[in-house]
RNA sequence: GCGCUCGUAGCUCAGCUGGAUAGAGCAUCGGACUUCUAAUCCGAGGGUCGCAGGUUCGAAUCCUGCCGGGCGCGCCA
């Protein structure tokens, strides 16, 4: 099959022509795009190449566009219907139905791989996300973090990278002591200390800890010990919740392990920093000179009392990830951590790392909206909406979809009423419904007929001469946009783009379904083309939903 | 006060490494149902892209200032 059949292929042809006409150097000028223009009368694809290269070529933009157009028309032959020069020098391409047919079969021939594996430079990437403190249940903010981190990991993996998902467990330090003290207080029927953990879940937790430690009364009064038991119980439920949410981790990294051994990982990393002269002592504490690397003040690593700060553990954890050989580290953090980015990047450089290899993405807040009113989450224990409650109320699919439909750096309003609605007003149901509808159509067609269509070799794929309906062309083009969407979603760390794309694709299919009957279409070649469209569209919708972690039901 | 971030339709948000008449969903209004799943579809209205300058052939997009919202500024985690 000719490489000119896909959107990407077209771009390659165009670039090759430019190199031939103007020399390789012309391509060094970036920004040349070939994209679906905003209006249909600007053609199927449009390029700004002439605008950008006119100066280099020493000709007027429109004249250069004309040259490119002529050369392209010669190269593409019957696949190009015609081209136009528009505005200041845009080259607009109007592709023939023959091209659309070829492109559709190209999509089908790629099968499961369609849109994936395009990363030009595959990397080993560790994505650390959620990492909720194991001192209480996860709330809606964690749900967003989980949905985002997981979808990002899926997108990056599909794009061609090797991904490890990690959850960093803060199971050391004073908070565990506090948790233990709080549980002990409850077990003994006392009030929870002022600075302890309150909240409804603590009572059930205390009961569970008590049951676990029933046969060792002494162990029930040691805060650190009780805290550790409580953490393991909480972690178990967190893991279960995440499991139900469709989020799985490859590795659970425990902060406590960074403190074990002689010397511990933390001690070792402090040694490295000291050795490179990035630390100093002041007021009895050990400081890291993060200001040398762009932070606005230096940070404490070891407090004057001798305890390590959380920061010190975190540096050790990032060093550990470096030593495990990842090319890139992505941390997905809560909104309240954004002030932490500069110091962590500084520390990473102090370790000898390249700060570009470390990306810290901070998630903005989630507001729940119910009956048009914002249900603010309170930080006060016990009043937040938990991940479990969110799943119970709107289900995993809707929860993930809505949490993922916005960019991670903007606050999101989650409308619980809309999310729960099972109608076309609800985007997630609309997309799933399109998928189920295709499954139904294909079932009506029959697997034997579908198989016959897909197995036909190119010459047997008659129908390439059949003119296409507008809705068919539009659907082919929407399908072809998928690889670029995946590429953008991966490059910009923005899986939310795929929710928008999935909706557009579902809309394109629905328009096609309205205008073009599939089952029994005459002649058989037309039916074959439509079956092919259904198959390609179904698998692309399914792929999109899978990348988002949303199910793609075959019937609804 | 300092730092980061956001400000786009009535609402929630895309678009932001500069491109043509700024998009989607919801809401509103007007239409369509002897269908391959109506859990649907078609159409319409709705915008000084916070404000003001600057850069240029061209700015929602880049730069500066201002206004407004959010978050963070500990030898807490």
Percent strand: 5-15%
Oligomer: single chain
The termini sit apart by 37 Å
Q: What's the CATH H-level superfamily name of the largest domain?
A: HUPs
CATH architecture of the largest domain: 3-Layer(aba) Sandwich
Helix content: 40-55%
Q: Specify the CATH class of the largest domain.
A: Alpha Beta
What is the overall shape? globular
* Rg from Cα: 29 Å
What CATH calls the topology of the largest domain is: Rossmann fold
Number of domains: 3
In words, what does this structure look like?
With 556 residues, the protein is α/β, with parallel strands linked by helices. It has three domains: 3-95, 2-Layer Sandwich (Gyrase A, domain 2), CATH 3.30.1360.70; 130-362, HUPs (Rossmann fold); 424-548, Isoleucyl-tRNA Synthetase, Domain 1 (Orthogonal Bundle). Helices cover 50% and strands 13% of the residues. The protein is built from 20 helices and 15 strands. It has a five-stranded parallel sheet with strand order 7-6-5-11-12, sandwiched between helices. A four-stranded antiparallel sheet has the order 1-2-4-3. The model is unreliable at 377-382 (pLDDT under 50).
